[in-house]
Amino acid sequence: MVAPLNTLQQAQLVLNQGGVVLHPTETCYGFACDATNMAAVRNLYELKKMPLEKPSSLMVASFERASGYGEFSHLAQALAEKYWPGPLTLIVPRKNLPEFLNPGATTVGLRVPSHAWTLELLKMCNFPLITTSANVSGQPQAYEVAEVLRQLGDVRPGFVVDMGKIPSEKPSTIVEVTGELVKIVREGPIASAEILAFCASFSRL
């Protein structure tokens, strides 16, 4: 199924039923599912051929929703307020999440995307969505739906949101924040130097 821009309700229905949605973000195309639905999570991991022990990040509609699933220090909150919505994933101590999600992990990655369509979908959902790049594990990120489908072969996600070729951006910058300590896990569209400079200026306040 291919979704025009006005099919938020159809995508929401698939997510509510435990399906996986292929959708654009401000970085690359991504897969999403209900992070609180164990069958949906397994479906996503099988579709992506991703090892079950590899943790997934979550995307939500706002900092307020993110704070329901993660413990934000003053610095983590400051980073969220500056860079969200946007391509920044913050890893913080987790809370109120099912044990089957990233089992054994004491932290969780959270982000609020700036892609307008995806942000509207998140506002409609009463649960966080897993967010992961829409590619088979070990293959390149995709910026066109055709490339994702080529990688998947005969299997398909429950719903496809095709917005054509999107700009080729790196996956989100990932920053782990433990109290006031910061670790750059992955550099993406937001440069590590910019993040570290912001944190240094925050610590001097």
For this structure, the CATH topology is DHBP synthase
CATH C-level class is Alpha Beta
Our Rg estimate from Cα atoms comes to 16 Å
Taking strands numbered 1, 2, ... along the chain, how are they ordered across the largest sheet? 1-8-2-3-7-4-6-5-9-10
Helical residue percent? 25-40%
Q: Can you give keywords for this protein?
A:
205 residues, alpha/beta, DHBP synthase, ten-stranded mixed beta sheet, 7 helices
Describe the structure.
With 205 residues, the chain is α/β, with parallel strands linked by helices. The chain has a single domain, classed as DHBP synthase. Helices cover 31% and strands 21% of the residues. It has seven helices and ten strands. It has a ten-stranded mixed β-sheet with strand order 1-8-2-3-7-4-6-5-9-10, with helices on both faces. It is globular.
Write the layout of secondary structure elements.
Elements: E1 2-3, H1 8-16, E2 21-23, E3 30-34, H2 38-48, E4 57-59, H3 63-66, H4 74-83, E5 88-93, E6 107-111, H5 116-124, E7 129-133, H6 145-152, E8 159-161, E9 173-178, E10 181-186, H7 192-203
Parallel strand pairs: 1-8, 2-8, 4-6, 5-9
Antiparallel strand pairs: 2-3, 3-7, 4-7, 5-6, 9-10
